[in-house]
Amino acid sequence: MDTTHIDTHVFGDPAGELHGTADDVRPPLLLLYGLTFDRRHWGPFLAQLPAGRRVLAVDLPGHGASPQSTSYAPDDVAAAVHRAVTAAGLDTPIVVGHSIGGLLATVYAAGHPVRGVVNIDQPLLPGPFGELLRQNEELLRGPEYLRLWERLTAGMGIDSLTPAARDLVRTATTPRQDLFLGYWHDLLSRSVGGRDPRAS
Fold first, then answer.
1. Which domain holds residue 79?
2. Which of 25, 111, 166, 172 could form a disulfide with 40 if both were Cys (CB 3.0 to 4.6 A apart)?
3. Are residues 183 and 35 in contact, defined by beta-carbon separation less than 8 angstroms?
């Protein structure tokens, strides 16, 4: 996508960046990035799209230019994303989500009209990741919470990226404790089978 010749519109709550123009052939795309990151991470992807493709890249609540929220529960985040979709005038988009954005894309599609869902690198069953978070809950809730985030990002292969992509991943991020605790609340409060581990 030639980003020098696109109509870009940035709007408010949650923040979204709208590219391209609507047409009757290609459904619009809705892009949701992963935890702590923001819509800038879709830049390399946007650069590869055909010129004029209608795309809405959204900053999730609490990320980028979007305001913080009192709830980061998946249904509440999906409702916030729908406000951005409505403000952008999108009709039944294809929702593309990366990492936790993949989960949110699926939750969004369960409650709103979409053309399809593309889930990148996000299993819908928490399995070992949920167990890892629960084993490290005390660390995650304490002043050294970034130690856990550093362990997680160390396994993402960031060093194998191109220098520009590596710089983007390392600088366009906001690893705040309230985001981890809010977006991972369900994983921290439920066992793998869905039962609250504290209710024994």
1. 3-189
2. 172
3. yes
User: In the chain, how many domains are there?
Assistant: 1
Residue 7 sits in a domain whose CATH number is 3.40.50.1820
List, for residues 52-97, the tens digit of each pLDDT value.
Answer: 899 999 999 999 989 999 999 999 999 999 999 999 999 899 999 9
Residue 96 lies in a domain: yes
CA distance 85 to 91: 8
Given a contact cutoff of 8 angstroms between Cβ atoms, the answer to whether 63 and 31 are in contact is no
Retrieve residue 96's tokens: 């593309």
Q: Which two tokens stand for residue 108?
A: 């969004």
pTM of the model: 0.87
19, 124, 151, 179, 199 from 174: Cα distances, Å: 24, 24, 16, 9, 33
What would the two tokens of residue 123 be?
Answer: 């299993």
Please tell me the distance from the alpha carbon of residue 3 to that of residue 59, in angstroms, as a whole number.
19
Asked whether residue 66 is assigned to any structural domain, the reply reads yes
